[in-house]
Amino acid sequence: MALQTNLALRQITAALLLLAALTVHASNKPHAKAHKAVSHKAAAHKASTRGPVYGKTTEAIALADELAQQYKLPQTWVREQISKAQHLKGVPKMVLPPTVPTAKNWRAYRERFIESRRIDAGTQFWQTYESALTRAEQTYGVPAEMIVGIIGVETFYGQNMGNYRVLDALTTLTLNFPAAHPRAAERQAFFKSELGHFLAQAHSQGNASATGSFAGAMGWPQFMPSSVAKFAVDFDGDGRIDLRNSPVDAIGSVANYFKAFGWQTGMPTHYPVGFDEARLDKPTLLAPDILPSFSVSNFTGKGAVLDEQAQKHTGPLALVELFNGDEPPSYVAGTENFYVVTRYNWSSYYALAVIELGQAIKANRALTSIQSNAR
Question: Catalytic site residue 321?
């Protein structure tokens, strides 16, 4: 009995140390480029930013006819939907880059997501949907902690899915995209395409009233309409895909997304990395950004120092740099699986937050289980 008690205490201590390292650790990790910025705080200002409906203006009719032809939809129906779309005056400003860029800070970014409330909510989510998470891992080869990490960062487990009508948001960003944006033509074309995908789905489902973020992302996993079309799955088997009301569909869809972008089962997402300053060629190591481009021998030959596990890695690596404001940057050696996470959101900061949130929740589950078994 004493041996069992001592073993349980050792297990609890180990789990506590792991959880503490994940929840407090902000001193040695990595980099990024932001892509998707879906701010749920903006919803508080939604009511004051509503403008008139687009109606039957020349621009609205031309857009409707173009999308009807491109997506093979009834012209009259599309015209009706676009005419009822409401101009959201504040939304174009939300997609503009900040006027005064702020210094990137991984530690501050991390603290927004790796915190006790989100870890507790993620632990409850995992417990509630354990069978679906297990099935997703078996079907797609994507670990449960990665799926849980994504949904936790994206919507705080369904708490922040957005309250903008997607039709309004995407029509606004198609017809009133800000010309001041440095990539205005490219981004306006992107939102027009997303509007087309959304209308095709709305027509198929007989419902154009879906809500989401100001950028048109929807449901527990915040999929854009094109991602719904390509990657969403009916994982609960009810005959329809519903990412807003079915967390099980969201679980399967996130796993399918990762698999589609090349997730490799069993491969770590990243490794710790240090530097041999005498041999370090950091500019060359950073040149490919987050795209894994170096074999282990090339990576270490340019002054990167890897631990024993990382030295056995068989695929390419990337040196991922995360800035910490005025403090020295953090670094990791990113694998092809790390790159896959950045395909969900083109940011290394985002990717590492997802990874570490999932790890923290997994550790919390293990601790809870050990404590329960020790009673």
Answer: no
